[in-house]
Amino acid sequence: MGIIDKRSNRWVLSLLPYSVAIGPLSTLITLEIASLRGSAVDVSYAIGAGSAVGIIAPLLWGFLLDRYGSREVLSLGFLGTALFILALSYAPGIPQIVLYYAAASLFSSAIGVSTSFILVKSSDKHDLNESYSVLNFASSLGYLIGDVSAAVLSSFMSTEHILFIMGLLPIISFAWSLFSIPRVTNGNGSTTVKRLIGKRARGVGTNVGELVTLYSALIIFYVSSGIFNTLYPYGLRVGGLSRTWVMTIISVGMGVQIIGFMITPRMIRVLGGNARASSRTLVLRGLSYFLIGLSSITPEAMIITGLTLYPLAAGIAFSTFYTASSVMVFERLGKGEEGRGLGAYNFITGSAYLTGSLASGYLASAVGIGGSYMIAGAMLWVSSYLFEQLHKSEGVQRITNTP
Question: What's the pTM?
């Protein structure tokens, strides 16, 4: 089958309505559980359920992508996500919220895997760093619009009504994708992409030890993110902030993230490549987590750190790390099995995020919400150390391979 028009990344625009809907979803779920007087453990169960489904689903979607191609998987993902977000707007209690959120996550994972699949199979005009930044810029723009819209709507509309509006948006993406998303299959693949990935693989000199280190660092990162991301909106809300303030803080973080994706390729070059950039931005993200936890005492302090430290962690640090680390994984995908490789990658990171999500509620009960943030920050410093070791290993290999 054909591959993407190498002269255009306009297909990513079809993701915008979906991204608007999915951006504030976990925060809206958290706020809804809080309104039902649920606990931090209830929140961790709900977010954990979505992560649990996300563990197995990418393997299924990866197999279907290799077998059938991108358009069918994307279409199913858009429609399924829309259906269950709409169902969330009618959920009468916490058990139903958990169930519907998990189902929405099942179909949402199809979109994440398939868009990465399209990216890996596409364009020889752009480097993977630049192409992945474009994809994530478009997604983050949608998330920001969704967060800001939810923040505005929350001042005069119930969470259930906001969810209903958001549930209609992936249907627009479905209709748009029928005309803009190419049908991409593995088949013989793109010879250009094969040359690109082959060249990168030889340059990286991947070995088993490096893969173990890379995935260990990623697992630690996603466990940490599962802890922090699951608790943060809930912590802001029970700490005394209004729904509008919670959504505003999340929106500011997303706005800075958009800026981050715009400058990510340059940041990675300035910082010394993917591994070194990953390491250094994790130091910043970990420090931000730690200081947010240390200062989570009063609503005023939470607003200050939410508008300063949180954007650093969720914006600049995350955009650079996510692009750099994802490209490191893409470089190591087996030729002709990109769908399965991406499925396995999402399986591993989803398992790690689930672990963090499930642990977050119990961790908060044991050491407090602020203490949980600090532990998550310290974990990122361990991950940073591992990425620094990868950077040193790649440097040694480049010297060794020099004729």
Answer: 0.71
